[in-house]
Amino acid sequence: MLPMPFALRHHDPATQQRRRRLSYTWAGIVVVWSFIRTVIVWAAVGDYGLNPWIYLSLDLAAAIIDALSTPRMVLNFIDDHMRQAIKWALISLVVFIIPDLYIFLGTRTLPRRIIVVICAIIGLTLVVGVLGVWRKIKKGRAMRAAGLDLECGTSN
Q1: Rounded to the nearest 10 degrees, what angle do helices 82-105 and 112-145 cross at?
Q2: Of 97, 153, 101, nearest to 129 (Cα)?
Q3: Which residues, 6 or more positions from 107, have their beta carbon under 8 angstroms from its beta carbon?
Q4: Domain coordinates of the chain in residue numbers?
């Protein structure tokens, strides 16, 4: 039998339950943000032909996928399962972009200033998201290296 390239980390049931609870919390936040974002986008570019129901449908579908993929990405990076982490990161990136692409594809000609503002917001939210994920991964790895339970900071 060949040696495994990395040791599989099996977590106790309490850790798995906390991870599941945090993932559900993240899912709720993402879905609520989807509704808020739809109202903002509709108010900003609704006069240019954007169909808010199509945008909401795309954003909710993306939010559900993001709610599933982002926690898996973070946890796989923390647990050093790089192949799985990269797979989930690519899925997260694609679903992050899809609703924003519809703003450009689902509207009539947008004024240049609105395009610049939308692109700036997309860029800013992408940077904030990547930095947030990076911090969570860094913190999780530091806690794992210290032998601490990732969710509550206690020793295993």
Answers
A1: 160
A2: 97
A3: 45, 48, 49, 50
A4: 13-145
- Per-residue three-class SS string for 8-71: CCCCCHHHHHHHHHHHHHHHHHHHHHHHHHHHHHHHHHHHHCCCHHHHHHHHHHHHHHHHHHHH
Question: Residue for token digits 């700036």?
Answer: 120
Q: Is the dihedral of CA 96, 57, 66, 41 positive or negative?
A: positive
End-to-end CA distance of the chain: 30
Percentages of the chain per state (helix, strand, coil), in multiples of 5: 80, 0, 20
pLDDT digits (tens, 9 = 90+) for 26-84: 888 888 988 998 999 888 888 898 899 999 999 999 988 988 898 889 989 998 899 99
The size of the chain, in residues, is 156
Beta bridge partner(s), residue 148: 155
Rg, C-alpha atoms of the chain: 19
Strand partners, 155: 148
